[in-house]
Amino acid sequence: MNRIEARKKAEALVAKMTVEEAASQLRYDAPGIERLGVPAYNWWNEALHGVARAGVATSFPQAIGLAATFDGDLVKRLGDVASTEGRAKYNESARQDDRNIYKGLTFWSPNINIFRDPRWGRGQETYGEDPFLTATMGKNYVRGLQGDGETMKAAACAKHFAVHSGPEGLRHSFDVRPSKKDMYETYLPAFKELVDEGVEAIMGAYNRVNGEPCCGSKELNVDILRGDWGFEGHYVSDCGAIADFHQYHKVTETPEESAALALKNGCDVNCGGTYQYILRALDMGLIDEQDIRQAAVRAFTCRYMLGIMEGSEFDSVPYSAVECREHLATAHEASLKSCVMLKNDGILPLDTNKIKTLAVVGPNANSRFSLIGNYWGTSSRYITVLEGLQDALGDDVRVLFSEGSHLFKDRIELGPNDDRVSEAVTVAQHADAVLLVVGLDETLEGEEGDAYNASYSGDKPDLYLPRTQRNLVKKVLEVGKPTIVVMLAGSSMDLEDANEKASAILQGWYPGARGGKAIAELLLGKKSPSGKLPLTFYYNKQLETMPAFEDYGMKGRTYRYFTDKPLYPFGFGLTYGDCFVSCAKAEQGEEKTKVICKVKNAGKMDTEDVVQIYCQNEGSENAPVNPRLCGFKRVFVKSGGEAEVEIEIENKRFLVVNEEGRSVQEGKVVLYAGMGQPDAYTKELTGHESVRMEL
Description:
The chain is built from 21 helices and 23 strands. It is α/β, with parallel strands linked by helices. The chain folds into three domains: 3-321, TIM Barrel, CATH 3.20.20.300; 333-542, Glycoside hydrolase family 3 C-terminal domain (Rossmann fold, 3-Layer(aba) Sandwich); 579-694, Immunoglobulins (Immunoglobulin-like), CATH 2.60.40.10. The strands form seven sheets. A six-stranded mixed beta sheet has the order 9-14-13-12-10-11, with helices on both faces. It has a four-stranded antiparallel beta sheet with strand order 18-17-22-23, with no helix packed on it. Helix 4 runs parallel beside helix 5 (131-146) and helix 16 (421-429) runs parallel beside helix 17. The longest helix is centred in the first third of the chain and has 24 residues, at 72-95. The chain starts with a helix and ends with a strand. 58% of the residues are buried. The mean pLDDT is 97.
């Protein structure tokens, strides 16, 4: 059902409601209206990386890992997996008249905020630091979630609008005052592209922007979102955000005033309890009845488009689709493609003819929590890194295990501090090689209120591992055995001495409930790593020269504006092959430019890799300091072979944003094609230089 038809039906239905009934439908937990045949509906559901909080579902890598795949088609297929399983669950729940939280078809995903500061705990939920990569991945996830059927398969929601990326502890009261350039160059583009894609919902952020709370902002929601961009879907508040208006932002004095401010500025559905005061706001003359009915129409337009009111072709999706073989295979593909190999002195892939005893050490080696990140669903089976290796190696290689340390506590049992380090050293001494599996989980980086590191509200204080793990890494490296580090974390980490002393480093992110199987396959060479960093990895000491966490200015942040040499650059990732762009040419049309690249693999193993196109406007005062990503595509190249890749780039990617926030054409446009950024450090790490093209 298209939006025009759905809206007409919604208008007719809402016209039959009393104002009290219409107001009740603006709560996230909307009650049923029996006399009109309207079932109860709970708007709150999650599908950040698979259906979450709703029982068993296929578990994908966390969103930051999906970004590392640089594979839009895969992300679209994962969105389809999530919406299929969401439909299967909804169908059964509806049959049982269970319409409670996490049972609906409105998924509050994806999170397309920009991961601008490496300390932000919720950065793991995003697609990284680059607006173009974020928009591309976000659009594909929306396409997969919403589908292209007669009715919408599920409703996606782009969040958190807008200019939102920490600190978590200040989010309920913080006022962001970004420059026009940063707004339109960094913080708004992904939202604009998802609106153009047809995303059904927008969720407002907690913070203020230019003095206005996001969920009640005339500038953001009326002027930009519905005015300039023509957004026609529904708008939902973040949970409790409207209560923040009077409790923390102090822009209103009462719940009635807060409800009125949000409703007047386009917030249709309230996650929280403040819209319980709407009728009192109406009685006080703060809003009109039409304000209530307009929001109700938008909400029911979505419900009609989903087929909730009159039925859908997706009502036949069976429960057997949940965690089916095909879905698990797609999630496994994502786990394989998400891992990023940051270093390899040749020890990988592991040679089981030479390594007969492998020590697996670390608090994340056998941890289920380190597989799933936050906003997770339940898996019927979990495969940790330890279990993945044990299953893959069988009796061919002896696997010794030591937890070595707690994730962050000083001791595991009742002994002294670092009570398991001696065991870790012992197993390292008795092995031919060591696999150190360290990192974080959602208890140390995540959302305020969900993460357990209360001192930092889910954010990281620095880029180091917790003290206990740092000591463990130091002691194991001192043994002197060949050591591979697997990092399970959702953000930039500084491994200190391990950056130099480890033989290899694999960034596994939070790879999904069965991600240990994929990591084992990569370590053993059954597949080649092929992921790329969707964010810059910094040295911890570089935080001292970066802007303050609370500063939303982009100068000195992310690969586009960072001028120092990072630990590892955005777009970087090694493979077991040796791929490079041997030649490239650009053919510019009126609206799009086609870049044709030849890619060679001089390595000894077949592999996938990612061709990346970067753009710079030479001579422009408004261009970012460094070339910016404007196109990418995965390619498979056989050992010693060659492949041709065509990448289409919209010419609007070549514009720059000036200080007034307007996109303008400036300077000489230069494109670069390679397997990473066209910078000296990427060349140093890969041994290859990007191909330059002038338009």
